[in-house]
Amino acid sequence: MGGHADARRVRLGVVGLLDRHRAVLPSWLALYYDEPLEFVSASGRRVTASDGRTYLDLFAGILTNGVGYDIPEISDAIRAQLDTGVLHSSTLYLIRKQVELAERIASLSGIPDAKVFFTCSGTEANEAALLLATEYRRSSQVLALRNSYHGRAFATMGITGNRSWSASALSPVQVHYVHGGYRYRGPFRNLSDADYVQACVEDLVDVLDTGTSGDVACLIAEPIQGVGGFNVPPDGLFAAFQKELSSRGILLISDEVQTGWGRTGEHFWGIQAHGVTPDAMTFAKGLGNGLTIGGVVARAELMDCLQANSISTFGGNPVSTSGALATLQYLSDHDLQANCAARGAELLDGLRALDLPVVGDVRGKGLMIGVELVGPGGEPDAAAAARALELARENGVLVGKGGLYGNVLRLAPPMTLTADEAAEGLVALRAALQAVQDEVVPG
């Protein structure tokens, strides 16, 4: 009886917390699962919830716990900074770890003569990049990809090409959307890679020639669309775009908030798959391994174009930059980019081997994998994705969900995922997807 009583108390505690959440937090602040989870401890790739269960986390706090939980090398670096008593000083003072981190990122970026500005999030990083580009080019016109996501502030919401995440039509920039991001349901889906790239370039030229006044500031793009469902364009697309853009003086900004730090397995930055160096890149999420940090790395001429004063109160603070430096060192010391390539291949191969009509598409690179679920006629099936999310949890595995229609399962585990954990995750996911299929077409 004691066990049942304890379980009931835990469940009532979660329900009580959920009621309190709904009472004081916005109704639009979404929660996963019919019975939302509260994490109380974590280690490696596993989290323990207040329901007493431990789960294999294949979503990593939306790619933010990029190395994993409770990593001693990172925790020790944070504690060492805490022990100094200096948690914050603002950018009005010299911050040694901030300088060291900027030097490291500038070197890793591949951008000549690079400078770095730190922020607190990916949204703020993209806002800063848009400010730089529009000021440098003296234009408020911006190009973005359809089905993109760049943040929840005014400018970044304005360039987000996914209506599920665009709460307002108001924007400080004039945005024009081009094709190229979401191939599976796009008008060019049946073309070869080369023909797809050519069609997208022709669309870009048409938009520039007919929909703009010519003096466009920039094109901003995710090398792999994250919230949009881990959509992967053909390699070389953005090099073809940049050729047209550079002929008109238009800047290219790569949004690396989800694709950076080696997660794609092939390269350290997602844009490198396209053989092009952008004018600027934005970053966040995995760099802090749970700490709040983001930023922009850009050509010095672009970074230094602002004429007004500016600071960042919390951006690049001593605690976040200490943790980020330790994270970068850990990534390098353990060659996590190679691990992403190996574990990602195992997950992709295992999921692609499924012969289930409910699985319309399996796509991704490295440890960024999307599984698009569809109905009998190939239409998006958001209900199937929601059900698969719940069943995966019942099987002990946590995954994410996204896509334009909410029908894509998103897998983005910590980059330290082991081969055994990848195999464990596959078993749970395959069982969940088979159960969804059986519910659609009962045996």
In short, what is this structure?
This protein is an alpha/beta fold and 443 residues long. Helices cover 40% and strands 16% of the residues.
Question: How would you describe this structure to a colleague?
Answer:
- The longest helix is centred in the first third of the chain and has 23 residues, at 2-24.
- The chain has 13 helices and 15 strands.
- With 443 residues, it is an alpha/beta fold.
- The chain has helices at 2-24, 60-63, 72-83, 96-109, 122-137, 154-158, 193-211, 237-247, 300-303, 318-333, 336-352, 382-394, 419-440, and strands at residues 39-43, 46-49, 54-57, 114-119, 141-145, 174-178, 218-221, 251-255, 280-283, 294-299, 359-365, 368-373, 397-398, 400-402, 408-411.
The global form is globular
Number of helices: 13
Regions with pLDDT < 50 over 5+ consecutive residues? none
- The protein's oligomeric status is single chain
Number of DSSP-assigned strands: 15
List keywords for this structure.
443 residues; alpha/beta; 7-stranded mixed beta sheet; 40% helix; globular
Fold topology:
Layout: H1 2-24, E1 39-43, E2 46-49, E3 54-57, H2 60-63, H3 72-83, H4 96-109, E4 114-119, H5 122-137, E5 141-145, H6 154-158, E6 174-178, H7 193-211, E7 218-221, H8 237-247, E8 251-255, E9 280-283, E10 294-299, H9 300-303, H10 318-333, H11 336-352, E11 359-365, E12 368-373, H12 382-394, E13 397-398, E14 400-402, E15 408-411, H13 419-440
Parallel strand pairs: 3-13, 5-6, 5-7, 7-8, 8-9
Antiparallel strand pairs: 1-2, 2-3, 4-10, 9-10, 11-12, 12-15, 14-15
Helix pairs in contact: 3-10, 4-10, 7-8, 11-13, 12-13
